[in-house]
Amino acid sequence: MTVALACSVGLHWAVLQSFAWSTMLASNLTRTSLSVALERTFDGKHPCALCKMVAEGRKSEKKSSSEFSHKKIEGIVRPAALTVCQPACFTLAIGPAIHPTTVLYRPPVPPPRSA
Q1: What angle do CA 10, 64, 58 make, to 5 degrees?
Q2: pLDDT tens digits for 67-76?
Q3: Residue 27: helix, strand or coil by DSSP?
Q4: Quick check: is 52 in a domain?
Q5: CA distance 67 to 65
Q6: Most confident of 10-14, 22-26, 89-93
Q7: Would you say 9 and 33 are in contact if contact means Cβ atoms under 8 Å apart?
Q8: pTM above 0.90?
Q9: 24-58 burial: b if 16+ Cβ within 10 Å, else e
Q10: Which alpha helices (DSSP H) does the chain contain, by range?
Q11: How far from 18 is each of 12, 28, 29, 71, 115, CA to CA, in Å?
Q12: Spatial distance between the Cα atoms of 115 and 41, rounded to a whole number of angstroms
């Protein structure tokens, strides 16, 4: 369920992009200094094959989700009829009066001891 949720929010593209960047950085570090390798990896002008694939995948995913959101789902919907009727007869059930003084019990003096 967690994997399905992660894929539905596009986490798989972030994981693939992170992998592509780390591979590109490692490759660029073998040829240049750290600052040049970082710049070349993240400037967007030198994408690798995996970066291109991730970009195309994100585009196609956005197209398919936007096409679905524009479709109108139609169905037969009837408003529910709500009818409120008064009861034929109504009697108020009155029980014995309960006063707070009858409910309160004083604890036994001295307190009970367990055997």
Answers
A1: 40
A2: 555 566 666 6
A3: helix
A4: yes
A5: 5
A6: 22-26
A7: no
A8: no
A9: beeebeeeeeeeebeebbeeeeeeeeebeebeeee
A10: 2-8, 11-31, 34-42, 49-70, 100-103
A11: 10, 15, 16, 34, 71
A12: 81
Percent with pLDDT over 90 in the chain = 1
> Has residue 19 been placed in a domain?
yes
Is 16 contained in some domain?
Answer: yes
Question: Does residue 99 form part of some domain?
Answer: no
Mean pLDDT of 84-103: 70
**Angstrom distance (rounded) from CA 103 to CA 101:** 6
Is 70 exceeded by the pLDDT of residue 100?
no
Structural domain that includes position 44: 11-69
